[in-house]
Amino acid sequence: MLPILVTGGCGFIGSNFIRLLLEKDPTTPIINFDALTYAGNLANLHDVAHCPNYRFVRGDIADRDTIRQVVGEGVSAIINFAAESHVDRSIHDSRPFVRTNVLGTQVLLDAAREFGVNRFVQVSTDEVYGSLGPTGAFTEHTPLAPNSPYAASKAAADLLVRSYVQTFGLPAIITRCSNNYGPFQFPEKLIPLFITNLLADRPVPVYGDGRNVRDWIHVRDHCAALALVLERGRPGEVYNIGGRCELANLDLTHTLLDILKKPRSLIRFVPDRPGHDRRYAVDCSKIERELGWRPTIPFPQGLRDTVTWYQEHNDWVAGVRSGDYLNYYRRQYGALAG
Ligand code: NAD
Ligand code: DAU
Q1: How far away, in angstroms, is 36 Cα from ligand 1 center?
Q2: Which of 127, 158, 277, 283 is catalytic?
């Protein structure tokens, strides 16, 4: 059996996805292709890396020769998680976002086409749709209106995927998911940043008025949806994935403070993110109807479990909260970094 090529498998969602596949069947052939940027961490897969048909290749998806070599050896499918994924970093410098998210996707599409790969799944985001008003939800037909350089680079990649479907008949599928949370998330994103700060009695930086709304989904529910799309999704289609769990940032912050029994005085309102999308909400009825998927992990339970995971993984947190992370933290949060 030819392996599945998973790109970006050492990141947050990619590592949870590989674990999900290997828990189901430890003999599943997988190539994990990852550049190990600041967000990629081999430790995220330490418990499954021994599986007999799992192989790690370090490389950059924008490096055409290496990708041609790996895909040319034969792969049954490609699922592309590899990306620069943090909005705030894209505001500081959008260059790596264009290189990895746009050029890297194009390189993968070319290789998939050249070597006749049977299935290509592009892991995209609801951020390509832009921002919602107080009501309604993104459907697969909502026009693309990205507002951050990150979102624009993901939208560009989505359009490239679409064009390879239309022009070359590539059997590709795009998924667009809402905000993920769960184990192994790099502590630059709201939930792991706030948990790890609070565990150290450090303040938490809430952007603007804290009333921006996100639709939260446990990473395991997202990965289960992706496994179904990989297996049974219809080529050429877009599938929205969401948690049906809308929450304002400030309410989420209060919940985290309550779980960790920390005082509200640790909240710091800091200047807003430029171009900050006000509200996301995902209509995921298409994937529910067509593939029988549903989000299954209730947010209160998933959030408590996530807090416990970070409490129990001090070494992992210490490993990623050093060096480059501290420079990033100082640049992003200034005085708050102390
Ligand atoms: P992440 O930042 O945790 O991981 C990204 C991974 O990609 C890392 O392992 C990194 O080393 C690797 N990578 C980066 N550049 C690379 C390159 N040029 N070549 C090879 N590997 C490279 O990201 P994540 O949160 O796990 O997100 C994974 C995917 O899911 C991304 O495409 C993201 O846009 C999408 N997504 C994320 C969320 C979310 O809430 N985190 C929601 C919807 C969609
Ligand atoms: O919607 C899917 C997207 O979710 C993914 O495509 C992105 O890869 C992922 O990073 C995430 O993007 P967000 O920008 O929504 O996630 P983030 O955790 O950075 O921010 C969540 C909300 O919290 C957002 O409204 C900004 C706010 N925030 C974030 C940080 C880091 C704060 O108030 N303070 C912070 O320090």
Answers
A1: 11
A2: 127
The pLDDT, as a whole number, for residue 337 is: 77
Ligand that lies nearest to the alpha carbon of residue 158, given by its number in the listed order: 1
How many Cα atoms within 13 Å fall on the side-chain side of residue 177? 26
- List the one residue out of 312, 119, 294, 121 whose CA is nearest residue 220: 294
The Cα–Cα gap between 114 and 230 comes to 20
Indicate if ligand 2 lies below 6 Å from the C-beta of 151.
Answer: no
Contact 174, 240 (CB under 8 A): no
Question: Has 126 been annotated as catalytic?
Answer: yes
Cα atoms found within 13 Å of the Cα of residue 146, Cβ hemisphere only: 20
Is the Cα torsion angle 258, 263, 265, 267 positive or negative in sign? negative
Strands (E), 64-212: 77-80, 120-125, 172-177, 179-181, 204-207
Q: State how far the alpha carbon of 279 is from the alpha carbons of 90, 198, 268, in Å.
A: 19, 25, 21
| Topology (CATH) of 4-181+216-241 | Rossmann fold (3.40.50)
Q: 57 with 33: CB under 8 angstroms? A: yes
Annotation marks residue 150 as catalytic? yes
Name 272's Cβ contacts closer than 8 Å, sequence gap at least 6. Answer: 207, 208
pLDDT tens digits along 199-211: 999 999 999 999 9
| 253-287 pLDDT, tens digit each | 999 999 999 999 999 999 999 999 999 999 999 99
Q: What is the mean pLDDT of the chain?
A: 97
β-bridge pairing 213-218 and 246-248 = antiparallel
Residue of 116, 3, 8 whose CA lies nearest to 59: 8
CA 123 / ligand 1 centre spacing (Å): 9
CB neighbour burial string for 194-219, b if at least 16 within 10 angstroms, e if fewer? bbbbbeeebbbbbbeebebbbbbbbb
| Residue spans per domain, the chain | 4-181+216-241
Angle between helices 149-168 and 105-114 (to 10 degrees): 20
